Amino acid sequence: MKRFVNLTPPSAGKWLLGLAPFVVLIIVYVLASQARLEINPADKLLPSFGSMKDAMVRMAFEPSKRTGDYLFWTDTFSSLKRLGTGIAIAAVLGLLIGILTGAIPLLSAAFSPLLTALSLIPCLALLPVLFIVLGLGELSKVVLIAIGVTPFIARDVQRRAREIPVEQLIKAQTLGANTAQIIVRVLLPQLMPKLINAVRLSLGAGWLFLIAAEAIASTDGLGYRIFLVRRYLSMEVIIPYVVWITVLAFLFDYLLRRISQRLYPWELAE
User: Fold this and answer.
1) In the chain, how many domains are there?
2) Which residue segment(s) compose the domain that 27 sits in?
């Protein structure tokens, strides 16, 4: 008798099973929205798909009467610029700190406790401090993302560096490699795909820090727009914006995964 735990769907079945929860959620939403709108046509909690489409057409393809900008695309560009800059800085710093503390015992003993302590700080609590020190401009938002994500990436890279077999390091030293050569020629090539995976896992936290910073002090951005229109209960704007953020996060994750597979195909075996 074949156990349920051993059943695996075929390739086509995986796609169908993956889409099924989304279809169910859409059907449930449509039914709930219709039920509320029948009772109260002015209800704003669960807007119809038609009202959301009209709102997004207005946001994306009609210039703002106040600024002349296409708000949806302006918000998207501003948020992606902040997120991309913050994550890039965090990736560079995380790789540098992680590989040095993971490969050099003296640096590990000196800085690992500090790195652990920094990773435990709730970064959103630092937001007022950053606004006071750096102002309300772009710098404070980018720094918040970098501070929030760097310790996570650094600790993951550090752990991965320590997992590399010591025999490889001994062989490199036997061939005359110095510390810099060991880091660049032995550790770095093996840690780059791990870095990409760490960045993928940290994107969720990066979006969280971005939305929080934009909600508190900004004049554009996806987070700013969501918290602005909530004053008017504009769910026909909020829901599509949340869905768009989710789509962007998925695309970023997919792009990074494809880059990792293309540059480091041996990682597919893991």
Assistant:
1) 2
2) 4-46
Tokens at 79, concatenated:
């948020």
In this structure, the answer to whether residues 88 and 35 fall within a common structural domain is no
In this prediction, residue 270 has a pLDDT band, given cuts at 50, 70 and 90, of: very low
Q: Are 117 and 235 in the same domain?
A: yes
Lowest-confidence range among 5-9, 57-61, 184-188? 5-9
Report the C-alpha gap between 184 and 180 in whole angstroms. 6
CA dist., res. 97 & res. 108, Å (int): 10
Look at residue 55 and tell me if it is in a domain. no
36: burial class by Cβ within 10 Å (0-12, 13-18, 19+)? middle
Quote the pLDDT of residue 44.
83
68 in a structural domain:
yes
Reported as a single tens digit per residue, the pLDDT across 70-122 is 999 999 999 999 999 999 999 999 999 999 999 898 988 889 898 888 888 88
Euclidean distance between CA atoms 260 and 256, whole angstroms:
6
**Same domain, yes or no, for 221 and 252?**
yes
The closest alpha carbon to 150, from 183, 180, 126, belongs to: 126
Rounded to an integer, what distance in angstroms lies between the CA atom of residue 236 and that of residue 125?
Answer: 31
Question: Is residue 155 located within the same domain as residue 41?
Answer: no
Crossing angle for the helix pair 188-216 and 235-263, to the nearest 10 degrees: 170
pLDDT digits (tens, 9 = 90+) for 210-225: 998 898 878 889 999 9
248 domain-assigned: yes
Q: What gap in Å lies between CA 223 and CA 225, rounded to an integer? A: 5
